[in-house]
Design brief:
Length: 467
């Protein structure tokens, strides 16, 4: 990668939170360049757009995750290419960007149109407005009783200073960053493919252990369940509800408004693990779905959007863990080793059964009563279950360690990308002399890997207009 130099001359910007910028760049409040617009769709048939903290404003049809769809989009806000679209509730997470499409967005979003067409390259604004310095400014200007419910209102956004390089420089900055993004995206995709492969290898270990046990010479018997097949002769087959308690504890409406907890929503969980650090929220500002009380040893499985395979065994102290009602909480009985239950629920046979019995296409879900009727085969003693758990952990530890290392590599390359973007869009490095090489091939399909695999997974799109 070519080493870039700084611009020859800089000046201190009016806003102290901005770094020194090239002397010839313009700097004005957003209201100088943009105005708020509120045009509504009369048909709801326009292209539906999604707003992400990672990929900006993009057609929802390009998202790989099936998302909630409203019955009608009449009354949605219209936006045009060049408009800035801000998810008012999630500006603090950088859920905003400049649209390159004609389409519609949630009526809860803010739409801002340029006074002069082509004054900004939309992609330049995408990069600039999601830098850490700007996000910190959104947080400082937002209002709300809690960080997760901060709102950035139009008058506050329009008061923020925007940096405006000459348009040819904006275009060059975008070309350079897109080329670097393509390299980074290919790296991330390769690492994700590796994680997928390692996860599949781990699931094969789990599948064999929880359906055959550890003794290769054990006599098998028909389970009488087609999808379960044969199981060791001495194992017991019972409906899941005979092995566990479903949703044993929930928060009541009289819970103290000051009760603070870590919230586990659908987007927080991937198969067998947490996908991100859990958010701390207070009951008074928590979503109405934040009701399932978790205890150490529970296993949770998503009953909505079941294609996500969101399953997690709670191996940590859980005094402050509350899950969404989009999960079924399974509390093992005395004859069940808790961690063994977690592996059973992760197994391919069980997960595939959940998918096969889910109802709905765009928003598939399964009733907890149906889940409870699924037959499950378990060794009759906790000792045998514990032995299987130890075997799985021993065999899968190298895989878990490899997955953790790979995830760390993705995290580090994302940090590098964030620093690079901030330096380039604020003029800390001069890319005017950069020329693309033969390896600097850019296409939208490649850049899609920059998105987080969980970025489309939230639970409140219908009520709050969140993506």
């Amino acid at each position: 990668m070519t080493v870039m130099s700084a611009y020859p001359n800089y000046r201190q910007p009016k806003m102290r939170w901005l770094p020194a910028v090239p002397e010839h760049w313009n700097e004005q409040r957003a209201k100088t360049f943009f105005r708020e617009v509120d045009e509504r769709s009369k048909t709801g048939q326009e292209e539906l757009l999604s707003v992400s903290h990672l990929t900006g404003v993009t057609p929802r049809s390009q998202k790989k995750v099936t998302m909630f769809k409203a019955a009608s989009y009449v009354g949605s806000k219209l936006c045009q290419p060049g408009d800035i679209v801000i998810n008012t509730l999630w500006a603090w997470m950088a859920a905003l960007g400049a649209s390159r499409h004609v389409g519609i967005v949630s009526p809860a979003y803010g739409v801002y149109r340029p006074h002069i067409t082509d004054s900004f390259n939309p992609a330049y604004l995408d990069y600039l407005l999601r830098t850490r310095a700007y996000v910190a400014e959104y947080i400082g200007r937002s209002t709300g009783i809690q960080s997760s419910r901060l709102r950035l209102y139009p008058n506050q956004f329009l008061d923020i200073a925007l940096i405006q390089p000459p348009r040819p420089e904006q275009d060059q900055i975008v070309a350079y960053l897109r080329a670097q993004d393509a390299h980074i995206a290919r790296f991330i995709k390769a690492k994700r493919d590796l994680i997928k492969l390692l996860t599949e290898q781990k699931l094969r270990i789990i599948d064999h252990a929880v359906t055959r046990g550890l003794d290769p010479s054990v006599t098998l018997k028909p389970s009488s369940i087609e999808w379960l097949g044969e199981v060791p002769e001495h194992w017991q087959v019972k409906p899941l509800k005979r092995w566990v308690r479903l949703n044993a504890s929930t928060l009541g409406e009289k819970t103290s408004p000051d009760f603070e907890f870590r919230y586990v929503d659908i987007g927080s969980v991937q198969t067998g693990r947490l996908a991100k650090e859990l958010e701390r929220i207070r009951f008074e500002s928590a979503p109405s779905r934040a009701r399932r009380v978790l205890s150490r040893g529970d296993t949770i499985i998503s009953t909505v959007r079941t294609y996500l395979k969101a399953i997690w065994y709670v191996s940590e102290d859980a005094d402050d863990l509350i899950a969404s009602t989009g999960f079924a909480v399974l509390t093992p009985g005395k004859s069940v080793e808790p961690e063994y239950l977690g592996y059973i629920i992760q197994s391919s046979a069980f997960v595939n059964r959940v998918a096969a019995n889910s109802i709905g296409i765009a928003y598939p879900a399964i009733a907890e009563t149906v889940l409870g009727r699924f037959p499950v085969a378990l060794p009759p003693t906790v000792d045998e279950q514990q032995a299987i758990v130890e075997h799985i952990k021993t065999e899968s530890t190298p895989l878990d360690e490899a997955i953790a290392r790979t995830e760390e590599e993705i995290r580090l390359i994302r940090e590098y990308r964030e620093r690079l973007i901030a330096d380039v869009v604020t003029g800390q490095v001069d890319v005017r002399g950069w020329q693309p090489g033969p390896e600097d091939v850019v296409d939208d399909a490649t850049l899609a890997a920059l998105g987080d695999e969980q970025e489309d997974v939230t639970e409140e799109e219908d009520s709050d207009g969140e993506d």
